[in-house]
Amino acid sequence: MGEIAKTEKKDKKFKLIGMRVIKTVVAVYICFLLSFLRENSIPFYSAIAAILSMQNDGSTSWQFGKSRIIGTLIGGIYGFFAILIVNFIGIQLFNYVHYVILSLFLIPIIYTNVYLKTTSSTYISCVVFLSITVSHGGDIFPMFFAFNRIIDTLIGIGVSLGINLIF
Question: What kind and span of H or E run contains 39?
Answer without folding.
Answer: none
